[in-house]
Design brief:
CATH architecture: 2-Layer Sandwich
Structural class: alpha/beta
Order of helices and strands: EEEHEEHEHEH
Number of strands: 7
Distance between the termini: 25 Å
Number of domains: 1
């Protein structure tokens, strides 16, 4: 599933697609577009997508990256799917709190916690 130019590591865990970022800093416009396109393809692959995005490798996110996350969230909801975010760095989490994005997204401490939160 991964191409040589991928910005993501993708794996399936039962019926959940787990996505991790390759880059520590998600700031570059071209990379953000590539991430959006890759995740959009995952969402479009089937009905009711169950997607977990882990930020374990990420140190910095741009506002454009946050916009992409909102777009991804809207796409998942449009397909009656579920999106979970996990392993967000405390500094990045602060941005989520300030922008009130923590109210839009289902954010979890770790992957195991997030995996347990999916509704059947």
């Amino acid at each position: 599933m991964a191409s040589s130019g991928t910005r993501l590591r993708v794996k399936r865990d039962n019926d959940v697609t787990v996505v991790e970022f390759v880059d520590r800093n998600i700031l570059d416009e071209a990379n953000i577009q590539a991430i959006h396109d890759e995740i959009a393809a995952i969402i479009e692959a089937g009905p009711k997508p169950r997607l977990l995005i882990s930020f374990s490798n990420v140190d910095h996110l741009s506002s454009a990256a946050l916009g992409t996350l909102i777009s991804i969230n809207n796409r998942v909801k449009a397909q009656e799917g579920q999106l979970r975010l996990a392993n967000i760095d405390p500094q990045i989490m602060e941005v989520f709190m300030i922008t009130r994005l923590n109210r839009i997204f289902s954010i979890h401490e770790g992957v195991a916690d997030a995996m347990g939160s999916f509704e059947k």
